[in-house]
Amino acid sequence: AGVIVSESDGSTAVTEGGATDTFSVVLTSQPSTGTITISASPDAQCDLGAGVGAAITHNFDASYCNSAWTITITAYNDALVEGPHSCLITNDIAASGTTEYPTSMGVADVTAAITDNDVAGVTVTESDGSTAVTEGGATDTFSIALISQPSAGTVTVSTSPDAQCDLGAGAGVAISHNFGAADWNAAWTITVAAYNDTVVEGLHSCLITNDITASGASEYPTSLGVADVTAAITDNDTAGVVVTESGGNTAVTEGGATDSFAIVLTSQPSAGAVTVSASPDAQCDLGAGAGVAISHTFGTADWNAAWTVTVTAVNDLLMEGPHSCFITNDITASGSVEYPASMGVADVTVAITDNESAGVTVTESDGITDVTEGGATDTFTVVLNSQPTAGTVTVSATPDAQCDLGAGASVPVSHTFGAADWSTVWTVTVAAVDDAVAEGPHSCLITNDITASGAAEYPIGMPVTDVTAAVNDNETQSIDVQPQSLTISEPNGSASFTIRLMTLPTADVQIDLNVSDTTECAIAVDTVVLTSANWNTGVQVPVSAVDDELKDGAQTCIVVTAAALSTDPIYSGIDPANVRVTVKDDDGGVDVYQPTAEDIARSQAPLCANMDGSTNPVVRATVPSGAVSNGSVFCRVLAENGVFVRTSAEVGDLPTLQRGVIQAVDVFGLTHNGYGVSEFNQPVNICLQGTGAFIYLDATTIPRTVHELPVSLQGGYTCAAIPDAGTVVLVQGTPAVTTPTIPNASSSTLSDCMVTTQAIMNLRAEPSATSAVIVQVPYDVTLTAFQRQADWFYVDFVGTRGWLNSGFVALLGACGQ
């Protein structure tokens, strides 16, 4: 009796996770009775099919005692690095039903040789196979894990970056991780960030060194090699010089506000310092003088500290208007290759507001000019505001007949300012003309003009302030009537005026009164007596409206004052001023329109103003709003009712002068900032008082072209349209009158149509909003319409015929559609 154990090929060899092997067990004889149970028990290194270290059994009996039991051996595939080792399988008779096979009978054991499949090592895995990061931007990761379970203790792996990257503990600071028996194969993920320095390095890298720095497992010695990681770094630093203007621009004022801009590098110089210079032109000063450059050196420590440059305008004496200063910025020295001297740096253009303004300052002593006939004189001064850019500037002062500037009454005086003495004031002495007329307090107008100039900024025609001198009369004034114009309304409106004497009379003064139209107004008294008791307080004269039932609109009556009756020689025969009374109708509308003198005046173009705002009734003008861009049109009277108030040389055309000048006026454009304009955008309608031939001397040609223009006659004025600036002269002769023709439009002829103006309206030469304006028609005037063409009515206004737009009239009668 016995048990035979047979190993295949005479031995047993297996591999972890790989090849298996077998051995067989068989009895040498048939059991005499019962069954024999054989047990095979492996140690923890192998598995016989029931689990690692689990025993298995087999029963032999009489029927299959000689049939072998084959056992398959599998190595336990652990994660330990053990090298070649073995597994012991203990075989025994575990139970027996026959005496010849006792349980104490020895059975051969089996030792299986095991080949280990575990190798000690550290795996380093970069995401996507590489590591790439960006300064101030994208990060990346890599992971570390052990290849096998430590046989004992823990294994510490450290990863150490150089100064170019940060693994979470700071640039260049190492971090570590412990792997134990439980988590040896759990990957440790390391996040890599580039160190965001300020140095221009371009594409560079960071070396991360990985090592085992401590270990309790002999198979993981500290000398075991671990792969390092090289991270590619994209630089976010670019060499450059940034120039920043405060508020986005640089603007300064001569003698006033300064401004600044800042200069700074965009990156730390890699080596040496960088010097930046700012070089202004002669129009500004950066602190070292007009046109003198300044510089600043940026080092590795203060490269990002901005250098502030303060800009001051050079305060010269020239009238330049808005101009500029150019500041050139450059790198003038550098110890860093990324900041070469050739690197571009933004320049700065500075907007300069000039504090010189072309103009003439007229200053009255004590703020006023006050003179007395035969007594005190006064002065005013004239000076230029800025140095002329070329030539000289001549300013003339022309008095009217009430005062004398040293050359005689009404005779102009002049002074020439040059580049050297432009700021030296010219003092003009004003004396009152001592006439023999009792005028009371009156005035003298002194007109100041530029009459010659070699500097473009001081054109002839530039506005110069005139001076009005208060003249104290040395003759005794006589009788004062105030007010000289009243307005009352029907049915019973009233008002009053006062008559008084200017001095104490030596005898009573009687003034008889009457009215020009007793159907319109009445006076309460017809005689006023002024005595030594009431001479200075005067006598009030009530005037009342006479109520009629006529629809006659506003009417005028005159309170006529007769010559004074008195034995006082001062007042005897003095004729006081009349009083004009306007009586408003209360009967509604008008039956037949009868234009008054006031209506006729309102129908004419507005008085044309001189530069100082004064007007003269000899010239009127209709000026389209866009005639002068950013400006307006002005009129300067040269001759008034046949008398030259300025020199006749200003007309400058002998044939025109020889025809006999009635009125002569300079018409010119001027922008709001004082520049003369000779070319108008639209024609301007000019009306000169009186009747005659209309001569236009065109100022846009040299010499001036002379034209005789066709005219229209409007309420005592001769009118013509001029295309541009020039001199207009009304001379003796028959005017070339143009009258609008009635269009042939029989289908729109009207026989019973009245139109009433709802505003002050333009009477036009043609039925078009762009045609010439003949005259202006007052508000609330009712006219007969003869024709209708579309939206236009053909009417007669005070003998002048033209077209009114239907949009601004009320219709009465058969006025068509």
Task: Describe this structure as you would to a colleague.
- By secondary structure, the chain is mostly beta strands.
- Helices cover 1% and strands 46% of the residues.
- It has 2 helices and 63 strands.
- Strands 47, 48, 49, 50, 52, 53 and 56 form a 7-stranded antiparallel sheet that branches. The protein has a 5-stranded mixed sheet with strand order 2-9-8-4-6, with no helix packed on it. Strands 11-18-17-13-15 form a 5-stranded mixed sheet, with no helix packed on it.
- A hairpin with a 2-residue loop joins strand 61 and strand 62.
- The chain is elongated.
Task: Give a short summary of the structure.
The chain is mainly beta and 817 residues long. The protein contains two helices and 63 strands. The strands form 14 sheets. Strands 47, 48, 49, 50, 52, 53 and 56 form a seven-stranded antiparallel sheet that branches.
